[in-house]
């Protein structure tokens, strides 16, 4: 009787080879399903990002003006960049803009997030109002702020004269004040987006820590520096990296507001690349400048990663 039952069980169970084939088919099916979800995004990344980036690196070693053949010239474009005064000015302007824009945007957006993190009536309206400039057309923003910064008739200088400034800045017409004016507008535009990120980070700060600090006698500033900021370290790191990358590739706002002027006071790397490529048709040289911008972003980002990793220990 026992042998008959064992024979029936052996007959019912598939042989090992059949089980392996079945597992292989299931594994292949799972793989194909996974690739079916990944493939559209991967194709978009490959066609719109990977292939252009690889082509960019190749073009940076060539002399090409679109119409003729791309002649391989090696490192000549990069050697030319080192001796190009406009390129050096654009690098310095980019760093100048970034050094002002990054800390100012962090301070303003974090301050807004702290103010709007309270449960008050109508808080959703104020959050929306703070975020609204980020989704507004960059052309509309530039046109309005150009009018506000008008040296003679702009409301900003009119207010400065009213409160006692006899010679207010020329703003966009001054080589000294043009970049600070662009930084002010850029900070006003970006603060809403980074405010949302800081608000999300503030939601993760445990209230128990604030309550414990308050019981221990810590005031508002002590709770902020000893409780809130340490808990916001991951969010702060992400915001800093994103702000750094976006500051290095600033283009549209400066193009519409100042077009790099007056003179070359607001000429940044992205606009230098645009001028060399699309206005002067020096695509090989423009590609070399783009590679330099890419390497600059990579180096600064790596430094930020190591700095954050060192501080987390």
Give a short summary of the structure.
The chain is mainly α and 313 residues long.
Number of helices: 14
Q: Note the main sheet.
A: 2 strands, antiparallel
Helix content range = over 70%
Low-confidence stretches: none
Compressed to H and E, one letter per element, the order equals HHEEHHHHHHHHHHHH
Distance between the termini: 68 Å
- Tell me, briefly, the overall form: flat
Please list the strands of the largest sheet in the order they lie side by side: 1-2
Secondary-structure class: mainly alpha
Radius of gyration: 28 Å
Mean pLDDT: 88
Q: Using DSSP, what is the number of strands? A: 2
* Residue fraction in strands: under 5%
Describe the secondary-structure layout.
Blueprint: H1 2-12, H2 16-59, E1 62-63, E2 71-72, H3 76-82, H4 85-115, H5 123-131, H6 138-148, H7 155-162, H8 178-202, H9 207-215, H10 220-231, H11 233-248, H12 252-257, H13 269-279, H14 283-312
Antiparallel strand pairs: 1-2
Helix pairs in contact: 3-14, 4-8, 4-11, 4-13, 5-8, 8-11, 9-10, 11-14, 13-14
